[in-house]
Amino acid sequence: MTSLKNRQIQLANRPEGKPQTSDFELVGADVPELKDGEILIQTLFLSVDPGMRNMMKDKESYTSPFGLHEVLTGRSVGKVIESKNKNFEKGDAVFERLGWQDYSVSNGEATKKIDIDIAPASAYLGVLGVPGLVAYFGLTEIAPPEKGETVVVSGASGAVGMNAGQIAKIKGCRVVGIAGSDEKNRYLTEELGFDEAINYKTTKDMKAALEKVCPDGIDIYFDNVGGEITDAALQLINYHARVVVSGQTSQYNEENPDQGPRFLNQLVTKSAMIKGFVVYDYEDKNDEAIEQMAKWIQEGKLKYKENIVEGLENSPQAFIDLFESKSFGKQVVKVSE
Ligand SMILES: NC(=O)c1ccc[n+]([C@@H]2O[C@H](COP(=O)([O-])OP(=O)(O)OC[C@H]3O[C@@H](n4cnc5c(N)ncnc54)[C@H](OP(=O)(O)O)[C@@H]3O)[C@@H](O)[C@H]2O)c1
């Protein structure tokens, strides 16, 4: 055991409905001595992701559920502070799924070095990390847009949605974003170049609002949130439309998903396609995707926005904020300098 003081965020209870801070606990923990082949990583930033809510349920998803009274794990970037692994040196900046804790020991097998000359370390949790890749693969592998098509993005002020909308703009599309405040929507249109943005919280008739800003219908619907927004968008899809299902944030706090209209006939009559995916489906293309995203950033075509919350102890609240429209852009927690 080293003399380092470690702190962990553990899952205290399985949340019912919206998570509460009382569902989490901050506990002290040891840092074990390194064995041969291992590295010691100090966490710099950790990512809070809506999808983690699914893993708090006692149900198998595409990953196993979090254990009660065990450290939560999620995508993180850190700095190697000690190495007994020939592939890593002290000082390397790395990405891995680490614990929500100050220090983690890893065997290095799933640890990836990151280049912080291209972008700051936190960007590897956002635009150059999973949210960026989800947007990129959704619009390259599943539904490559054609110039002039209309693309609607739900959850547009979030990490995935901002990237998806901007990639669709780069491809020459008309882009409509849906987000939960006028301030967020102004950012989408004025800073990121979205053509239109709809505030779903103040819009009573989402179908009518979408009809107004999509006079030629919807060719691609990039869905991050599901629920009633999606019910409305699906009524407006065009012949040969593609629906990309990245996530269903509006459903994650429900024990049973709410029952919406049955829309499959709409797919038949419009010869349309709907496809869900997890980012790992395209893992072999990660390097190519990150290279392209980095190039777009350097060319000034792709902007990114981060909301940085200070302190490991504030990670639970940072996570809860994702379900209360309080995050804006990629929400990350800064754990150490
Ligand atoms: N398929 C994959 O491999 C993969 C990987 C990563 C993420 N995802 C999924 O992609 C989706 C977006 O992720 P992200 O990282 O972009 O999320 P994010 O940045 O954390 O987005 C959070 C935003 O979602 C919006 N939101 C929260 N609850 C909502 C509700 N009930 N209805 C509508 N909007 C709501 C809020 O903004 P406003 O309410 O203000 O608009 C909130 O600020 C999530 O569903 C996530 O699980 C999928």
UniProtKB/TrEMBL annotation:
Instruction: Tell me the first and last residues of the signal peptide.
Output: none
Keyword Oxidoreductase listed: yes
The record's Gene3D superfamilies line, in alphabetical order, gives: Medium-chain alcohol dehydrogenases, catalytic domain, NAD(P)-binding Rossmann-like Domain
Q: What spans are recorded as compositionally biased (Polar residues)?
A: 1-11
Which segments constitute the Enoyl reductase (ER) domain?
17-333
In which domain of life is the source organism classified?
Bacteria
One Pfam family named in its UniProt record: ADH_zinc_N
Recorded hits in InterPro entries, A to Z, give:
ADH-like_C, ADH_N_2, ER, GroES-like_sf, MDR_fam, NAD(P)-bd_dom_sf
Write out the entry's keywords from A to Z: Oxidoreductase
Region ranges (Disordered)? 1-23
Concerning CDD domains, the annotation shows:
PGDH (cd05288)
Protein name per its UniProtKB record: NADP-dependent oxidoreductase
Please report the organism this UniProt entry assigns to the protein. Answer: Sporosarcina aquimarina
